[in-house]
Structure formats: structure tokens, C-alpha cells
Amino acid sequence: MKAIVCDNGVHFVSDYPAPELRQGWALIRVRLAGICQTDLEVVDGYRGFRGILGHEFVGRVEQCEDQFLLGERVVGEINAACGDCSWCAAGLGRHCPQRVTMGINGLDGCMAEFCTLPIGNLHPVDAAISDRRAVLTEPLAAACEILEQVVLTGAERVVVLGDGRLGILCAWVLATVAAEVTIVGHHPEKLALAGWRGIKTVVDGAAVASGADIVIEATGRTQGLARALSLCRPRGTIVLKTTVARPGEIDLAPLVVKEITMVGSRCGRFTDALAMLSAVPELPLERLISACHSPADARQAFARAGDGRAVKVLFDFLAQ
């Protein structure tokens, strides 16, 4: 099958072995798959992963034991958990110590004609939600995770650092709850896309008032945390979204002096993202799609995704 593989760089292959279907799992024919910052970090060495890349997709179930899912258009949670530990029992399989993670750790990803996931990971997509919106369920869920981790009253002033796809999605999700949301980024063209529901945009380097109640760090850079610490008020909250392949140094003294709460935030619940897609149909997700490539153009697509100008780059696995 056609696949995009990480092995000392990004490679398109036309004869990758099709995945074997195991008990309790489903075989999905991929329609669209997206490149995210984590994919770029994986190619750069994050987690030492080798195999098929990708964890953002929408597709149709080709084979599985659950007859009700056959033929359904689905999206899938990316962590395949053991199902037996205390984390899984608490509904937190995304933190299961034995989990494998699609396209990141121990499990081939979705940048291929076919992928596999446990049946329990799959969520049917409402017919009213297009493929180009559904493919963004995973990053939207990651943004919605903030609302599960941090209790908002609605009166908070929020600053989002980073004008990439995740930063913009975080700003949009928080704008449905918070009184004031400002997004800070490097790229005027990306910031122009972010405007929605009164969100303020600021080009990095310009003055941003400190004393924010909540700062979301989604820059994709190790230096982002230092900026977040400077902007957050005493006893405020910083939510970290960045994962990077290379370690960095940071002065954590302000964290102690200002008694700031720091929250690591990763994957979210797909049910929350799908509910938001249905409840807020005006959420302008299509703005984020910069390009859609054939899988054979894998290197070109990854170069475009990493050039700092594109927001979201997709692969169309049904294109001829």
C-alpha cells in the first residue's frame, strides 16, 4: 500500500505491507491525513520513532468485528491502551503506561492507504461534518483538553503564545468561554486567520500586557515557556502544549516566586471535539488548511508544513 514513512527522513513508499487486523481492532481506509507539529518533531528525532507517520485522519471502516461500524466514516483516538490498568478504568487510556501511540510510539500511523486502531478508539462522524473539518478532530480535541484541565469562570484574560494550527485552535476554543483572548505570533498572515469571536492578535515583539490569568504556550519552541512565565500573573496558570525533540534550558525561578500553576496538556477527548464541531458549526476550521497534497509529494508537503508559513497541510489518500 502507499504510505509515508519516517526512516532517517520522510519517504513515500508504494509497497508498504498492509496492516494485519487483530482481534478487537478495525481496519480503516484513510481519506485525509494531516501533518502536525508533532510529526515534524518525530521526523527530527522525537521518541526515536520509525514507521508510518501521522495521527490525524478521517477515513471509512473497511473491516472490524462490530457490524455497526462497518462502512462508517470515522476519526480515531491515537492512543491504543491496554484496557486493564487503573488509568484505563478511570477513562484515561491516553495515560496508560502500556499504551502505544499512532505514528509516535510503537504503532504505525495514518499516513497510508490503511491504518488500524482498537474499535473502542473510533468515533463515527456526523454526516453534516465534512472530511476537511473532521480531519482536524484530533488537534481540536487537544485544544478542548484545556477546558477539562482548567476551570474557567468566563471572566479570565487569556494569552495564547503561538500562531500555528494548535495555537489558533486553542484560541478559538477558549474564545467560546473566556472574556478576553489574545494570540501572539510571528506571522501576520496566520494571525489574520485567527480572528474570530473578538480574539485579539499581536505580532511577537510588540507589547503584550503581563498579568494574564491563563497563558497557553503553543509556540513549538523551548523558549516559549520563558515568555509564558513573564506574561502570567502571580498564582495564574500556564498550560504547556509544546513538545520538542531537542532539550533546552529554562529559568524556573519565576514559577516559584509567582506561585504559578503549570499544566501539561496533550491529547483530548474526541467526543468533546466532535460535540464542538456540531454545536459551533461556524467554527472556521477550513481557514487552517493551507494545502492538500498527494502522498507521492510527501517530502514537498513536509517541507511546506515546516516552512513557518503554512498552517495545516493535508494528504489526500483517495486522490489518483
User: What's the CATH class label of the largest domain?
Assistant: Alpha Beta
- State the CATH topology of the largest domain: Quinone Oxidoreductase, Chain A, domain 1
Structural class: alpha/beta
User: What's the count of strands?
Assistant: 19
Q: What is the overall silhouette?
A: globular
Q: How many discrete structural domains? A: 2
Q: What gap, in angstroms, lies between the N and C termini?
A: 14 Å
* Spans where pLDDT lies below 50 across 5 or more residues: none
Please state the average pLDDT score. Answer: 93
H-E order: EEEHEEEEHEEEEHHEHEHEEHEHEHEHE
Largest sheet: 7 strands, mixed
Q: Tally the helices.
A: 10
CATH superfamily of the largest domain: Medium-chain alcohol dehydrogenases, catalytic domain
Radius of gyration: 19 Å
GO molecular function, one term: metal ion binding
Domain Alcohol dehydrogenase-like C-terminal: 168-274
Cofactor: Zn(2+)
Family: Belongs to the zinc-containing alcohol dehydrogenase family.
What does this structure look like?
This is Alcohol dehydrogenase. Residues 23-125 form the Alcohol dehydrogenase-like N-terminal domain. The structure is a single chain. The protein is 24% helix and 29% strand. The chain is α/β, with parallel strands linked by helices. The chain folds into two domains: 3-128 and 281-316, Quinone Oxidoreductase, Chain A, domain 1, CATH 3.90.180.10; 143-264, Rossmann fold. The chain is globular, with a radius of gyration of 19 Å.
